[in-house]
Every structure is written in structure tokens, then in C-alpha cells.
Specification:
The complex is a heterodimer of chains A (about 190) and B (about 230). Chain A is mostly helical. Chain A folds into two domains: about 90 residues, Rna Polymerase Sigma Factor, Chain: A, CATH 1.10.1740; about 70 residues, Winged helix-like DNA-binding domain superfamily/Winged helix DNA-binding domain (Arc Repressor Mutant, subunit A), CATH 1.10.10.10. Chain A is about 70% helix and about 0% strand. The radius of gyration of chain A is 19 Å and the shape is globular. With about 230 residues, chain B is of the alpha+beta class. Chain B folds into two domains: about 50 residues, no CATH class; about 150 residues, no CATH class. Chain B contains seven helices and nine strands. In chain B, a hairpin with a 6-residue loop joins strand 4 and strand 5. In chain B, helix 1 crosses helix 3 and helix 2 crosses helix 3. The N and C termini of chain B lie far apart (about 60 Å). Classes of the chains: A mainly alpha (about 190), B alpha+beta (about 230).
């Protein structure tokens, strides 16, 4: 299959997952080949201990094998489904294996980037590029807290503790940031 | 049908993991019966997945080996080898025993005369297996004859179509498979050139009469690789 990457692309990830739901091992291998680099990156971001990240990656793909039929293309792309699955599994492991991460968050009070130029905007054509680009438009502290929430399972309350700020303050500034993010992504 | 601004914000908070446990559980419940909210949540999940845009690292090969080792045991290599042999033999025997049915007589060219000499290229066989059933395929390069046996495939009103996917990645149809009868036919010319050891075969479900586009349009339910039986 490595000799024919075009062949791989012919079959979309959605179709491959559908075939995995039918017990197709070739399709399963195709899904692994095309997505494991990304999912291992996600697992490592959440679980810096490599051994743990590898174990979670195994669990994720065994779940894909058993539950590929639960993927609903109407609800989003296959990649989003897989990333969400990997993130949730890795966070479960993080919560089981140790206390919640509690490194303090230093709010630097950075100023948001100035308005972007058109060329930069044009580069962010795909969805993944778009969110990275829109996050860069936010106040640096806000963007960092949003990433911390997603990759470390930190709720508003956790963020408030770690940033040593009142819960209400953190909540309202992140909500404002989410509204800006939504406007940028729209 | 779009969610209110407040609901959209809640969907974002749920997707990003900002809510505490009780709030998250309540929001999760809403996903089930509030379509607009579920739609907003799906959109924010896609955005959130974009946070992984700059992540990626190749896992060590042992991860894939460990995954394979944990797949169900009744699905392992030994079983598929057995199936592969049984399927190949069954295909040959059934074809001999049952011959062709009228439907296939109408659709496919008559067989060429059986080869008289022994020095022929080895036949190629494949067993396409999956949860959906088993299809075994036997191709004789000398005569261009393709035999197949379908078992356990519940296609409903749909047609079962066989494809070869050569190295260029463009599937080529090998025709429809009859579920009721094993059969053989001459492989279509352009597709038969692609029938070589190592090539992937696939079975898809198509509208009655076969794919209207010349490419698979329905779900691919089985795949397997063609191997030399010689």
C-alpha cells in the first residue's frame, strides 16, 4: 500500500471507517497508516510519558476496530472523530494515573496580535489552519488557557486555580475570547 | 435551526472541556434531544480538533504489532489462511458442480475451451473476508476465467459488485456476483490485465444492476489480496 499513496487517497477516511465497521482489516490498517501520526501527537501532548501515550494509542485503535460503526459522517469528519476519541482516552488516563496537572499558569498580559494582513489570512484556508490562525488573533493568555483546557482537561475552576484569579474573572474573559474566536471562524 | 448565542457558547465550552462535571453532564444530556445544540457542538468539536493542527509524531512499529495481537483471535492469520484454502477449493468445486445459471449465461461470454496443456501460469486466488461474509475468488490467467463464491453476504435489494484496485488506485469493475449461485465468467479485458498477485480486490454494495458510475458508490464490505495458488 505504501507503493500506491494515490490508491490510499482514493478511499476516503469515512469510507475506510465504514469498512472497518464491517470487520475489514485492510481498511483498518489504512486508517492506522493515515491517522496514527496525528493521534500519537495528540496522545503525547496530553501524556508526555511515552509509554503511556503508546498504550493509549493502542486503546484508541482497538476502540476504532470495535466501534467504527458509531462514527456518524453527518456529525463531522472522520479525523475530528478520531482526534476527539484520542483526546478523551488520553485525558481519562491522565485523570486515573495522577492528580490533575496543577502547574501554575502565569498570565503574562500579552497584547493580542494586530490585525492580520490578507496574505496571512489566505494561508489559513483549511479548518485546522483556520483555528490556529484565529487563536493567534486572541490575547496570548486566553489562547493558552483554551489550549490548556482542551489538552489538559482543565475546567474553568482548574484554570482559575492555576492562574490564581477569581473564577468569575477567568470565566468571563474566556467567554469573551470564545466569542471572538467564533467571529473569526465564521 | 441554529443555536442561540448562549447555547453556542455552551457548546463551545463543552467541546473544549471548560465545564465542571455537573455542567458537562447536563450539557451532554441536551445533545441527545436538542438538534440545534448538537449541531453547534459538532461544529465546535471540529474547531477544537484543529488545536491539534501542529501535532504529530510517528508511533513506533511495536504499537501496531500490539494492536494486531489484541484483535479477536477467531480473526487471526491462521484462520484466514484456512479460510483462504477452503475458499479456493470450494470455489473450484462448486463451479465444477453447479456450472452456470441462466442469469450469468445472459450476462457473460461463454467460457473459452479448457486449456489442454499443463504449462500454464498458476491460478490466482483471494478470499475476501469481513464481518459481512466471505467471497472467494479464483482467477485463471491462462483462460481469463474468473470464478467466485459468495457466502453469508446480506445485500438486501442491493447488488454485490466485485472490483480490482490496481496500483494506480482506480477501481475497475469485475462485474456483479450472484449470491444464489457460484459462477464464473471471463474477466473484463481491461480489468483482467490488473489481476496479478498482490493486487487488492474489494466487494461493494451497489444499486440493482451495478454501480451507475463505473466506480464503487456503495459501502465497501469486504477486501482481500489476490495471491498465487501455484
Amino acid at each position: 500500500m505504501a507503493a500506491a499513496p494515490e490508491a490510499d487517497r482514493e478511499i476516503s477516511l469515512d469510507r475506510a471507517l465504514e469498512a472497518v465497521a464491517g470487520g475489514d482489516r485492510t481498511a483498518f490498517e489504512l486508517v492506522y497508516q493515515r491517522t496514527s501520526v496525528k493521534l500519537f501527537g495528540v496522545a503525547l501532548r496530553i501524556l508526555p510519558e511515552r509509554q503511556e501515550a503508546e498504550e493509549v494509542l493502542q486503546e484508541v485503535y482497538l476502540t476504532v476496530w470495535r466501534r467504527a460503526g458509531a462514527f456518524d459522517p453527518a456529525r463531522g469528519t472522520a479525523m475530528t472523530w478520531l482526534i476527539t476519541l484520542a483526546r478523551n482516552r488520553a485525558l481519562d488516563r491522565l485523570r486515573q494515573s495522577r492528580r490533575r496537572p496543577s502547574d501554575p499558569i502565569e498570565l503574562a498580559g500579552e497584547v493580542a496580535d494586530p490585525e492580520p494582513d490578507a496574505e496571512q489570512q489566505a494561508m489559513a484556508s483549511d479548518e485546522a489552519g483556520r483555528i490556529a490562525w484565529c487563536l493567534d488573533r486572541l490575547d496570548g493568555d486566553d489562547a493558552r488557557m483554551i489550549r490548556t483546557a482542551f489538552f489538559e482537561g482543565a475546567s474553568y475552576a482548574d484554570l482559575a486555580t492555576r492562574a490564581a484569579r477569581p473564577l468569575g474573572t477567568i470565566k468571563s474573559r474566556i467567554r469573551r475570547a470564545l466569542i471572538r474566536l467564533k467571529e473569526c471562524l465564521a | 435551526m441554529s443555536a442561540s448565542d448562549e447555547d453556542d457558547l455552551l457548546a463551545a465550552e463543552l467541546a473544549l472541556g471548560l465545564l465542571d462535571e455537573a455542567e458537562a453532564a447536563a450539557a451532554h444530556d441536551r445533545l441527545r434531544h436538542d438538534a440545534a445544540f448538537a449541531h453547534a457542538h459538532a461544529r465546535w468539536q471540529a474547531y477544537a480538533a484543529g488545536l491539534a493542527a501542529d501535532l504529530g509524531e510517528t508511533p513506533p512499529a511495536r504499537v501496531w504489532s500490539a494492536i494486531l495481537a489484541q484483535l479477536p483471535a477467531n480473526d487471526n492469520l491462521v484462520t484466514s489462511m484456512r479460510l483462504w484454502r477452503a475458499g479456493a477449493i470450494a470455489a473450484s468445486l462448486l463451479v465444477l458442480a453447479l456450472g452456470i445459471n441462466d442469469w450469468q449465461r445472459a450476462h457473460f461470454a461463454p467460457p473459452p475451451p479448457a486449456p489442454l496443456h499443463a504449462a500454464q501460469p498458476a491460478p490466482l486466488v483471494a478470499v475476501l473476508s469481513g464481518k459481512a461474509g466471505v467471497v472467494s475468488v479464483n482467477f485463471d490467467p491462462a483462460s481469463g476465467r474468473l470464478a467466485s463464491v459468495v457466502s453469508g453476504v446480506d445485500a438486501g435489494p442491493r447488488a454485490v459488485e466485485l472490483w480490482v484496485i490496481p496500483a494506480d488506485g482506480r477501481p475497475r469493475s469485475l462485474g456483479l456476483l450472484s449470491q444464489a449461485h457460484p459462477g464464473w465468467r471471463r474477466a473484463p479485458g481491461r480489468a483482467s490485465a490488473a489481476l496479478q498477485a498482490g493486487v487488492t480486490l474489494a466487494v461493494s454494495l451497489e444499486p440493482a444492476g451495478g454501480s451507475p458510475t463505473g466506480l464503487p458508490t456503495g459501502p465497501v464490505i469486504l477486501t482481500g489480496k489476490l495471491a498465487s495458488a501455484g
